[in-house]
Amino acid sequence: xxxxxxxxxxxxxxxxxxxxxxxxxxxxxxxxxxxxxxxxxxxxxxxxxxxxxxxxxxxxxxxxxxxxxxxxxxxxxxxxxxxxxxxxxxxxxxxxxxxxxxxxxxxxxxxxx
Length: 113
Ligand code: AMP
Ligand code: ZN
What we know:
Layout: H1 5-11, E1 18-21, E2 25-29, E3 37-43, H2 55-69, E4 81-84, E5 100-104
Antiparallel strand pairs: 1-2, 2-3, 3-5, 4-5
The chain binds adenosine monophosphate and zinc ion.
């Protein structure tokens, strides 16, 4: 997608603080952190959300989450973390390219929002 901000980050056209990259995903620092550690797991394939996600993209996303589970120590998340994916208007999704927020690095609130 030509004008998608996360596709531009994936292509290296917009700078980002990348902490991990492989053939399926990048993990970057969120520009506006909501926790001590706030990362975004961004699949390289463009699709807006889980409704638009194909079966093949779902399989890749599952692979990405498994790989994330092996990175928790180096990302400073060994004490735990929260994964969030906002969808649509009620979910307050602002970037229509599926991404998973990774929040941690401190004790999070026990409320979800
Ligand atoms: P959402 O509102 O769930 O779609 O999340 C989008 C997230 O992307 C927000 O937390 C923003 O702070 C973050 N964001 C937007 N632009 C950038 C950028 N250029 N680099 C890093 N994070 C960004
Ligand atoms: Zn995109």
